[in-house]
Amino acid sequence: MSLLTYNEIKPKKFILHENAPWEVLDSQVSRKQQNKPYNRTRLRNLNTGQVIDWTFHVNDKVEEADINKKTITYLYFNNKKDEYWFSDPKNQQDRFTLSSVIVGDGIKFIKEKNPVDALTFTNTNGETSIIGISYPIKASLLVTDAPPNIKGDTATGGRKTVTLETGISIQAPLFINTGDIIIINTETGDYAEREEKA
């Protein structure tokens, strides 16, 4: 594991802080006159989901967390128990659940039986656990329900609510219809573009 200086602690990095793995969500290095520089960060605990603000000073060094990826298959969501079920892609019988804290919001744009990348962390005792999911930035999904476009309807700013095949509803342009395949930004949940039909 490598050591990071205060100004190398940047977004999308994973660090060990207070014996836990954290993802750096935001960082801002600044220097005021006569004062030493510092890095004001926003961190998310990969075990609990807790988000904190933390300032690293010029003499601070942190260990980069040893985060690995492995492919797992998303099976389904059990609404009654609030459980997300996954399996080993090579063995569908090897099933396990992950909490919504670990899974995050990106799962709403993943179809059942599709592969995703699990982020794994090995602690000082040698125990490896899944601490998060890495999603593709874009997902192509079928629109299963879209209200008809009403001419002259500009009060909504040219947007309407459509439902996607995963069951999630998003805002999309008025020209989107049932049966269209659209591309979604999984980080923001926003409509990106419509896929052209072949």
Automatic annotation (TrEMBL):
Domain of life: Bacteria
A single GO molecular function term of this UniProt record: translation elongation factor activity
A single cellular component GO annotation: cytosol
GO biological process terms held by the UniProt record: peptide biosynthetic process
SMART domains linked to this entry: Elong-fact-P_C
Residue ranges of every copy of the Elongation factor P C-terminal domain listed in the record: 139-194
One matching Pfam family: EFP_N
The family this protein is said to belong to: Belongs to the elongation factor P family.
Name the record gives this protein: Elongation factor P C-terminal domain-containing protein
Organism: Candidatus Nomurabacteria bacterium RIFCSPLOWO2_01_FULL_36_10b
